[in-house]
Design a protein that fits this description.
The complex is a heterodimer. By secondary structure, chain A is an alpha/beta fold. Chain A is built from 11 helices and 12 strands. Among the domains of chain B are: 45 residues, no CATH class; 159 residues, MetI-like (MetI-like fold, Orthogonal Bundle). Chain B is mainly α. Classes of the chains: A alpha/beta, B mainly alpha.
C-alpha cells in the first residue's frame, strides 16, 4: 500500500477578487521509503499541496475537492482533532526558513519535549531522552548540553537540524519538506541532504521534497513531479524526467540552470511570467509562454502516459534535449 | 547582572538630585507659602516669626542647601501644615495608594490579556468588534468622568458598592490593607476599576496586536505541524512572545497609574498620597510636595529596573550587560 495517494486534489482560496485555484487537480503517490521531488516555480502551488496534506492550509484556503489517501484512509474532511493526532506523529513537516521555524523565546528542550508529549503520555525525563537521541541522529554535537539552549544560539544549519530532529521524534511515516535547504548555504545544504537521505533510508520513511532546485531533486529523489499553475505538467522517475523531458516547461526549467551550460553559452530563460492565478488561460496554462504552442493548446488538456512517465501536453518534445 | 543593577541604582541618585532641584524651583515659582499658611489677621510680628521659623526668610539657594544636607541624613523636612516629618506623612499614606495601584494593575492584566487574546484570535468578528469598541471607550472617555459614572451606576442606582472612603482595613506587618476584609474589598472595587480602565484598554490593544503579529509566523505553523493543541500554542507559544511588549508598556504605565491615582483618589475620597499631594499643592506645602515627587521618582526608577530584569527573563535574546 502506498504511504500516500493524492487523487485529483483541489485547494482553493476564496478571495474578494474571486476563487484562486492554487492546487487544481493534482494527483501523485509516494510509496514507503520513496522520495518524491515536487518541483515548480514560486506560486505554482507546490507548498500549498504540502500544507493540504498535513491539513494546515491557512484560511481563506480550503481543500475543495479530491482525496488525500494516507495509508489508505482519506484525510479530506477529517476533524481538526483527528488531524492533530496525525500531525507530528504520522506526518511531519519541515519548513523553508530555519530562522523562523523555532519559537525564539522557548528553549530547544521545551520545544522538543512538548512535541514528544503532544502524542505520547511520557514523563518529562523520558521525553527529554528521546529529544537527545533525535538530536544525535541529525548530527548535533553534545545534544544533552545543547538542549537547554535557545534557537538564537544556533546557526541556521543547526536550527534546520533541530527542526528535522523534531520531525523525526515520532518516526513519522511521511515527512513533507518545504524547501528546507533553500535558506542555507551550499555546504550546509549538502550536509542536510545527506542527513535526510540517511534517516529516510534507515527508517523507511516516505518523503515529499518540495523545491524549485532541480539539482537538489536530481541527487535526492526517486520520482519527480513538475508543477505549473496548480497542476502537475510532467511526472515520472527522476532519471526519465530530467534526462528525457517531454514537456516544454520542464525543458525550459532545465535549460535555465547555469550548470548545464558551456562557458560563454547564453542562458535560456523561459519568456514571460507565470499567469495570475485569477486569470489563467484556457486549455494549457503554459501555452502563452511556450515555444511549441499551437491553437490546439487552447482546448482542455489530457494526460498522456508512457510507463511511469506522464505529462500534460499536446506537443511532447520527444526529440528535444535540455 | 549585579553590576548592572548597582550601576542603575547609582544613576538613580543623580536623577533624584535633579528632581529635587526642579521641584524646589517649581514650588518657589508658584507662590509664597507664607501668604497661604499665615492667617490674614496675624500681626506683622507674628507673620515675621512664622516666616523665620519655616526658614522662608533665607535666600532660595540657602533654603535648598539646608534641604539637601538634611535630605542626605534622611530628613526631607517637616510639613508646613501638619508640622510632622513630610516623609512620614507620605509613607503613612503610600500603602493605600500602592494597594489601589497594584489592584488596578492586576485588573488591567487579568482582564486585558484574555480579552486581547480573544479579540486577536477571532479578528473581524462581532466579539472582536465589541471588545475593541469597548477599549476605545476606555481610552477616550475622561478618567474622572468614568469614575463619576461608576459611582452613579454602582453606588447610587444599584446600591451595590460604597461610593468612597477606604472602609475597614486589617493590619498586616504594620501595614493596613483593605484586601483582607469584605468591607475593604467592597470599597476597593470601584476606585481600582476606575484606575484600571485606561490600562485595561491599553493591554487589550497590545495583546490583540501581538496575537495578530505572532499567529501568521512560521514557528506557530511549525508548532501546529508538531500536533500541539491550540490551547498550548496560544498559552505558551503566543503568550510568551506577547508578554515582552506588554511588560514594557505596563511597567512604564505603572508610574502613570500612581500619577492618575491623584484623580481617582480625589473622586473616591481614597486616603492615599494622591489626595495628600493635591491638598499640599493647594497649600504650597513644599516639603510634602518635594517628598512626594522624590518618592514617586524613586518608585519609577525601581519599576524600570524591574522591567529591565523581567525582559531578560522573558526574552533570552536580551542579556543585561555589565559593561558599556
Amino acid at each position: 500500500m502506498s504511504t500516500i495517494v493524492i487523487d485529483n486534489l483541489e485547494t482553493h482560496f476564496d478571495t474578494p477578487a474571486g476563487v484562486i485555484r492554487a492546487v487544481d487537480g493534482v494527483s501523485f503517490s509516494v510509496e514507503r521509503g520513496e522520495i518524491l521531488g515536487l518541483v515548480g516555480e514560486s506560486g505554482s502551488g507546490k507548498s500549498i499541496t504540502g500544507f493540504s496534506v498535513i491539513g494546515l492550509v491557512d484560511p481563506p484556503g480550503r481543500v475543495a475537492g479530491g482525496r488525500i489517501l494516507f495509508q489508505g484512509e482519506d484525510l479530506v474532511g477529517r476533524s481538526e482533532k483527528e488531524m492533530r493526532a496525525l500531525r507530528g506523529k504520522k506526518i511531519a513537516m519541515i519548513f523553508q526558513d530555519p530562522m523562523m521555524t523555532l519559537n525564539p523565546v522557548l528553549t530547544i528542550e521545551t520545544q522538543m519535549v512538548e512535541a514528544v508529549r503532544a502524542h505520547d503520555k511520557v514523563s518529562h525525563a523520558e521525553a527529554r531522552q528521546r529529544a537527545v537521541e533525535a538530536l544525535g541522529l541529525v548530527g548535533i554535537p553534545s545534544p544533552d548540553e545543547r538542549l537547554s539552549a535557545y534557537p538564537h544560539q544556533f546557526s541556521g544549519g543547526m536550527r534546520q537540524r533541530v527542526a528535522i530532529a523534531i520531525a523525526l521524534l515520532h518516526r513519522p511515516d511521511l515527512i513533507i519538506a518545504d524547501e528546507p535547504t533553500t535558506a542555507l548555504d551550499v555546504t550546509i545544504q549538502s550536509q542536510i541532504l545527506f542527513e535526510i537521505q540517511k534517516v529516510t533510508r534507515n527508517f523507511g520513511m516516505s518523503l515529499i521534497w518540495i523545491s524549485h532546485d532541480l539539482g537538489v531533486v536530481a541527487s535526492l529523489a526517486h520520482k519527480v513531479a513538475v508543477m505549473y499553475a496548480g497542476r502537475i505538467v510532467e511526472a515520472g522517475p527522476v532519471d526519465t524526467v530530467l534526462d528525457h523531458p517531454v514537456h516544454p516547461y520542464t525543458i525550459g526549467l532545465l535549460r535555465s540552470i547555469p550548470a548545464n551550460l558551456q562557458r560563454g553559452e547564453t542562458l535560456q530563460a523561459i519568456p514571460g511570467m507565470a499567469p495570475s492565478p485569477l486569470h489563467r488561460p484556457s486549455g494549457c496554462p503554459f501555452r502563452l509562454r511556450c515555444y511549441a504552442a499551437t491553437p490546439v493548446c487552447e482546448t482542455e488538456l489530457v494526460k498522456s502516459r508512457v510507463g511511469e512517465h506522464s505529462w500534460r501536453c499536446f506537443h511532447p518534445q520527444t526529440e528535444a534535449r535540455p | 547582572m549585579t553590576v548592572f543593577i548597582l550601576r542603575r541604582l547609582l544613576q538613580s541618585v543623580g536623577v533624584l538630585f535633579a528632581t529635587s532641584i526642579i521641584v524646589f524651583l517649581g514650588v518657589f515659582a508658584i507662590g509664597n507659602p507664607a501668604d497661604i499658611l499665615i492667617a490674614a489677621d496675624a500681626t506683622q510680628a507674628e507673620r515675621q516669626a512664622a516666616i523665620v521659623s519655616l526658614g522662608l526668610d533665607r535666600p532660595l539657594l540657602e533654603q535648598y542647601w539646608i534641604f539637601l544636607s538634611n535630605a542626605l541624613q534622611g530628613d526631607l523636612g517637616r510639613s508646613f501644615v501638619f508640622n510632622q516629618p513630610a516623609i512620614g506623612l507620605i509613607l503613612a499614606r503610600l500603602p493605600a495608594t500602592l494597594e489601589l495601584a497594584f489592584v488596578a494593575l492586576f485588573i488591567a492584566l487579568a482582564a486585558g490579556i484574555p480579552l486581547g487574546l480573544i479579540a486577536g484570535l477571532k479578528p473581524q468578528t462581532i466579539v472582536d468588534e465589541t471588545i475593541m469598541t469597548g477599549s476605545i471607550l476606555g481610552f477616550s472617555l475622561p478618567n474622572f468622568w468614568q469614575g463619576m459614572m461608576l459611582i452613579m451606576i454602582f453606588s447610587v442606582w444599584l446600591g451595590w458598592l460604597p461610593a468612597g472612603g477606604r472602609g475597614e482595613t486589617v493590619q498586616v506587618l504594620g501595614i493596613s490593607t483593605s484586601l483582607l476584609s469584605w468591607d475593604g474589598i467592597a470599597h476597593l472595587i470601584l476606585p481600582a476599576t476606575n484606575l484600571a480602565l485606561f490600562n485595561l484598554a491599553l493591554v487589550i490593544r497590545l495583546t490583540r496586536t501581538g496575537v495578530r503579529e505572532i499567529m501568521p509566523l512560521d514557528f506557530i505553523k511549525f508548532a501546529r505541524a508538531k500536533g500541539l493543541t491550540e490551547r498550548r500554542i496560544v498559552l505558551v507559544h503566543v503568550l510568551k512572545n506577547i508578554m515582552i511588549p506588554v511588560v514594557t508598556v505596563v511597567g512604564m504605565e505603572f508610574g502613570s497609574i500612581i500619577a492618575f491615582a491623584v484623580v481617582t483618589e480625589t473622586i473616591f475620597s481614597w486616603p492615599g498620597i494622591g489626595k495628600l499631594l493635591i491638598d499640599s499643592i493647594m497649600l504650597l506645602d513644599r516639603p510634602v510636595v518635594v517628598s512626594y515627587l522624590l518618592v514617586v521618582v524613586f518608585m519609577f526608577i525601581v519599576i524600570n529596573l524591574l522591567v529591565d530584569i523581567a525582559y531578560s527573563l522573558l526574552d533570552p535574546r536580551i542579556r543585561l550587560r555589565d559593561s558599556q
